[in-house]
Amino acid sequence: MYNPRRQRQRRYAPTCPECAGTGVRNGAEWLSALGGIRIKLIKWTSITCMLVMVIAKGAIPYRSDPKDMLVLAQDLKPALEKYSSYDLHILNRDCPYGLQFYLKKSPIDTIEFKDPTDAQGKIRDVVKKAKAGTPQLTIIRTKMLKKLEQLIDGRIYQVIPVNNDWALIVITPPDSSNPTS
């Protein structure tokens, strides 16, 4: 194991993987000395584990995490640039502070509802704001879209898919035909 007296640097603080690696090596040497496990088996097991970890670490950037607000902000920007002014909401979620930072938009209102009657009241408020002239944009998880489609009249909103996990519901003023107005 790690022995500070054997180290060349006096103030050397080993990291956790170094300590774990040294421990595994010492344990493997001890097991092979007992005659229970051959070094060749340990070597191939170690190489296989290392390859699996390298492949897994390389695959992580290609999988999007729905909680990653930087990715959501980058995916939302093209849709938001179509509107000169708008109110931005997020449905049934805690206030996404990372999203506010990346979009440089403050505040992002949270629309939260527990039952359909509560939802219809809050949706009515958002539609009133849209009729007043400001487009209302609501960020929603795609798995929530089915529930919401039952509550809103399909003629008053448009759904813009943002990515696999998120969508944007756009409620524009009824007389506006051009989103940049």
Secondary structure blueprint with pairings:
Blueprint: H1 16-34, H2 39-59, H3 69-80, E1 87-91, H4 97-103, E2 109-111, H5 116-131, E3 136-141, H6 145-149, E4 158-161, E5 166-171
Parallel strand pairs: 1-2, 1-3
Antiparallel strand pairs: 3-5, 4-5
Describe the structure in your own words:
With 181 residues, the protein is of the alpha/beta class. The chain folds into two domains: 4-61; 69-171. 44% of the residues lie in helices and 13% in strands. It has helices at 16-34, 39-59, 69-80, 97-103, 116-131, 145-149, and strands at 87-91, 109-111, 136-141, 158-161, 166-171. It has a five-stranded mixed sheet, with helices on both faces. Helix 4 links the parallel strand 1 (87-91) and strand 2 (109-111). Helix 3 crosses helix 4. It starts with 15 loop residues before the first helix and ends in a 10-residue tail after the last strand.
Task: Please sum up the structure shown.
With 181 residues, the protein is an alpha/beta fold. Helix content is 44%, strand content 13%.
Gyration radius, in Å: 27 Å
Give the CA-based shape. Answer: elongated
Average pLDDT confidence is 76
User: What are the segments in which pLDDT stays under 50 over at least 5 consecutive residues?
Assistant: none
Beta content: 5-15%
Helix-and-strand structural type: alpha/beta
N→C terminal distance: 69 Å
| Alpha plus pi helix count | 6
Helices and strands, in order, run as HHHEHEHEHEE
The total number of structural domains is 2
Biggest β-sheet strands, sense, barrel: 5 strands, mixed
Number of strands: 5
Please list the strands of the largest sheet in the order they lie side by side: 2-1-3-5-4
Helix coverage percent of residues?
Answer: 40-55%
